[in-house]
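Reviewer 2 asked us to include a model.

Predict the structure of this chain.
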Amino acid sequence: MKLLLIRHGESEADLLDVHEGRADFPLTSLGERQADLMATYVAETYSPQLILTSPLKRARKTAAILNEKIGCELIEEPLLKEFNNGVLAGLSREEAAIKYPLPAGGRPIHVPIQDGESELDIRFRAENVLSKILVDYQEHDVVVLVSHGGLISNLLNSFLRQPINTEFIYPTGDTGIHLIETKNQKRIVWFLNKQEHLIELKYEEKE
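Predicted model (structure tokens):
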């Protein structure tokens, strides 16, 4: 099975300098254009049989745009939601730093943000959804997961069997694509954060 891990396009929160997380902002018009370019590339290159998406607006719309080009089954998977950042959701970074400053030395991985989840919680959620996908959808050759930067980073660490307290993170740009595969008991990483499909935007900006 090949898994395409895809982050949503630009959301309104990206322009507001706020903590997004579970705050449910929609895509911007640029985000929709990014999703359209990504969808064309994925449809022409990989022909997925299934799309699983976070139900948050920015991911759900990205997945819907992709599905318009592919026409395969589309399923909402709540485990693909972004990190639950509790009281920080939707707050400006400046306001959050004043109201809810990080503890000295940082927050221990087992301690959740108020009304949210901990780093351990999101890693466990990533392990859960990855196991579920590899078992429940193993008859598919190519499956797309449309999600969020934090959850995708945890999925990659889960896939690579990194320790819970690993220092590795995997940044993902707007509609960035990661391709991983399970084959003959091996776990293969083909590429990370591919955004070549967005090159066309540079030419559109010059017109």
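The radius of gyration is 17 Å. The mean pLDDT is 96. We have added this to the supplementary material.
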